[in-house]
């Protein structure tokens, strides 16, 4: 692997921590101090506890993709085969939070983020054979209020993928895999849509935000952009990144999934508080 940067990334250490996966996705760091990620074709969730290695954690028959946690340690999962978003309590109780919009089934929820006030935001593209069973005539970016139904923040003709919030929770970022850009939404006023980053190399997928407000995007490599959309640096891996999350006790590690592997990079900046 190689590291190249518009700023000095020479101190970043990258290590491979899991391999032999079929298609890794959806990494999320639990407030209880462990990492989970999906092996999507296998319908599996993996759990990694620091110092104890990788182990299969749960089987998600609906097809696990993106994951997130809230402050209570509840897990939110995009189940793309069942075309729904679920929340699993710490004792294993599963609730369906979203499966339909205006009476029609979702396309295939992909990635998800939870705001501190309990609002949930997720993307709903359709990749591969998901296109064949579509009932919605758009690709959606959705919001779910606590105890509410999904509402559409945006209805795209191109496919949304990764999703993240600014540190203050007021701006929502969504990657567009077809147009290869990132759009930003002002959640308090509108939400007004603007294009923040264009011409991202490769196909932009997962997004995470650090405490400074910079965006880290999984695409051809892992790219760091400022909140104003300026490219700051990149981390190149042997595989194509699919998604990423901040973790470890100090939140200064970036856990990166590729199709078959998981990496850990010490980036020297904390991820934005997630809970």
Describe the structure.
- By secondary structure, the protein is mainly β.
- The protein has a single domain (2-266), classed as Neuraminidase, CATH 2.120.10.
- It is 0% helix and 50% strand.
- The strands form seven sheets. The protein has a five-stranded antiparallel β-sheet, with no helix packed on it. A four-stranded antiparallel β-sheet has the order 2-27-26-25, with no helix packed on it. Strands 3-4-5-6 form a four-stranded antiparallel β-sheet, with no helix packed on it.
- The radius of gyration is 17 Å and the shape is globular.
- It starts with a strand and ends in a 9-residue tail after the last strand.
- Mean pLDDT is 93; it is low at 2-7.
Helix and strand content put the structural class at mainly beta
Low-confidence stretches: 2-7
What is the element string, with H for helices and E for strands?
EEEEEEEEEEEEEEEEEEEEEEEEEEE
Shape by Cα distribution: globular
CATH class: Mainly Beta
Q: What is Rg?
A: 17 Å
Beta percentage is over 45%
| Number of extended strands | 27
Q: Indicate the CATH architecture.
A: 6 Propeller
Strand order of the largest sheet: 1-24-23-22-21
Mean pLDDT rating: 93
The fold-level CATH name is Neuraminidase
How many alpha or pi helices?
A: 0
Q: Bin the helical content.
A: under 10%
**How many angstroms does the end-to-end distance come to?**
32 Å
Largest sheet: 5 strands, antiparallel
Number of domains: 1
- CATH superfamily caption: TolB, C-terminal domain
């Amino acid at each position: 692997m190689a590291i190249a940067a518009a700023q000095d990334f020479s101190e970043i250490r990258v290590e491979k921590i899991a391999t032999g996966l079929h298609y890794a996705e959806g990494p999320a760091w639990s407030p209880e101090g462990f990492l989970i990620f999906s092996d999507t074709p296998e319908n599996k969730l993996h759990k990694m506890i620091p110092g104890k290695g990788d182990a299969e954690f749960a089987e998600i028959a609906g097809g696990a993709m993106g994951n997130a946690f809230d402050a209570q340690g509840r897990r939110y999962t995009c189940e793309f085969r069942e075309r729904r978003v679920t929340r699993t309590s710490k004792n294993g109780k599963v609730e369906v939070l979203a499966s339909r919009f205006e009476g029609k089934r979702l396309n295939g929820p992909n990635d998800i983020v939870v705001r501190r006030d309990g609002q949930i935001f997720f993307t709903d593209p359709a990749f591969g054979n998901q296109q064949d069973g579509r009932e919605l005539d758009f690709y959606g970016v959705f919001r779910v209020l606590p105890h509410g139904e999904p509402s559409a923040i945006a209805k795209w003709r191109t496919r949304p993928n990764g999703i993240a919030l600014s540190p203050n929770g007021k701006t929502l970022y969504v990657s567009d895999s077809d147009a290869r850009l990132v759009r930003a939404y002002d959640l308090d006023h509108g939400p007004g849509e603007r294009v923040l980053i264009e011409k991202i190399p490769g196909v932009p997928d997962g997004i995470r935000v650090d405490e400074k407000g910079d965006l880290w995007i999984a695409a051809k490599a892992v790219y760091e952009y400022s909140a104003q959309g300026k490219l700051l640096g990149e981390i190149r891996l042997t595989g194509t990144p699919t998604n990423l999350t901040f973790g470890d006790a100090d939140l200064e590690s970036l856990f990166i999934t590729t199709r078959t592997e998981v990496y850990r990079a010490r980036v020297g900046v904390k991820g934005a508080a997630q809970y």
